[in-house]
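Database export, one record per block. Field names are fixed; values are copied verbatim from the stored entry.
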Amino acid sequence: MIDFSRLDKTIHERGRLSIMTLLAARPEWSFQDLKAELQMSDGNLITHLRTLQDAGFITLSKLSTPSRPQTTCTLTPEGRHAFTRYLAVLEEIVAAARN
């Protein structure tokens, strides 16, 4: 029997899962690039990013430029580990469904 409670609730929400997947594939993303890729509003994206940051899964870095500030998002080692654990549970679920 699979213990579904092992799925990390912070990551499991669709928006945050999308963010974590993108950050696992590429070391850093700008806020604007994430917004465009995920087709999220500023408010929706920042809410998900703050949740992931509060969990220690990502870092947000702000760079001030003359034209406008730029926020960059990166996955922390803890975030990468949490995402790997999350994927392992998903793999168990898929394997069980195939048997």
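Remark 1: The mean pLDDT is 94.
Remark 2: The radius of gyration is 15 Å.
End of record.
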